[in-house]
Amino acid sequence: MDEELNAQPVVESAAAPSPRVDGQSRTSQRDASMSVLSKLYYRYKKVLKVIRLFLIIAGPGIIVMVADNDAGGITTYTATGAKYSFHLIWFLILLGPVAYYVQEMTVRLGAVTKRGHAEAIFHAFGSFWGWFSLMDLVLLNWLTMITEFIGMTAALSIFGVPRLVTVLAAAVLMATMVIQGRYWTWEKAAMVFCVLNLIYIPAAFMIHPPLKQVLQGSLIPQLPPGGFTNELFFFLMANIGTTIAPWMIFFQQSAVVDKSLQEKDIAAGKVDTGIGAFFTVVVAAFCVILTGTLLPGQNIYDAGSAAAKFMGISKQLGTFLAIGLFDAGFLGAICISLASSWAFGEVFGWAHSLNNKVKEAPWFYAYYFFGILLAGTVVLIPRAPLVLITLFVQVIAVTLLPAALVFLILLLNNEETMGQFKNTRFQNIANITIVTLIVAVSTLYGISALFPNILK
Amino acid sequence: MILEFFKNTLSTVKSINRKYAHPQIKMTPAVKVSLLSLRLYLIFLVGILVYKFITMLR
Are the CB atoms for A250 and A118 separated by under 8 Å? Predict the structure, then answer.
């Protein structure tokens, strides 16, 4: 029977379907639906796998970008919002891709060379440029750490917490995050603080900002009333200056190496950086919305005083802002102190991984704790020249940032080490344009910090 | 003990200098021009800082 059926021509079976053929069609339908289901299941599993892989790889990009909104950054954004209301939100949005393009290079460089930025500079450009970068970084990071502690103490002083208690609490918390000897734990703890950095978003929704004006300021490039003035130029420079800082380059590249990211992880690393850049811009924009709505036309000199003013308007809002400022300073401090420790460890050949226990990497951790204590102590000194220190940060950053950025581009164009991951023509055009702009603007910013009347 | 620390550090610095004595990057014209520009830029900045320092002292 089977043989007879098999012998029948196909056309005949199509013309007069037999019970056997009905069965076949049902089977094929079932197969087809099974195939669709299995395909869907396969895709679901694949997407799940990609998400899982991303969650494993994600970290350095998001942390460095959110930490970019440190105490200095929050001060700049709140001052910008108070001064120019919502008119410059579009400008902040434009700075997101700028930060992404620069930081994305560190992901590729770290994953391919397995060297931190300090070690990469020593290796590629020799000891002169290496020492210059390392010493400049150490000085700049230490000064920036002091500004982070200033932000943290200012934030908690709103609740009446003495400076000493704030400094000690922050130092203990920072030590606890690293002391367990696992990079993963440190990273996830840092991510929690990154989430806390988003506190400015609900705070902005609480005050019901004028949506139409906010959208206009976000989507339509425009100059504030009064046009292009020297003061506006200073604010634009300050915002660009906070977008890319030297420690960010050193931190992310070292974090990529410490996390042992490989070439195959570069794509996920880029997404990680992109998401981080998105959140940086979002937090910056919401800071501007907050002060633009509640303190329009006022001069804000530090985020602490802005939080205190908000406290007068609404206790809950002031609390949110103070928590945000403390968190911003804390995130900045943990990343900056690690950037220095990693850089020193790479160059001096110490064990320098967060996966090492304190006993296994004593110098790495000693340097880390020393940096925190030294910066915290300066804030506690009565009548310490804190304003001068903030000014110094801007000036020293100008000496290191161009060098770090130029080295980054040169290293990314080195075919011998980067191979297929070297900069493409488009990336070079984009990055060289961005770097030229940042160097020019940060130089002008540094000079205007030294000579305040030069732009008046 | 402190003297020993400084001696050790000095010898480490010397070994780092030996290790990285020669730049490993290929010195193409673009690299040479970039490094020269960086040197000039830094000299300019140091000049400004020195000028600021002198004017502050006055």
Answer: yes
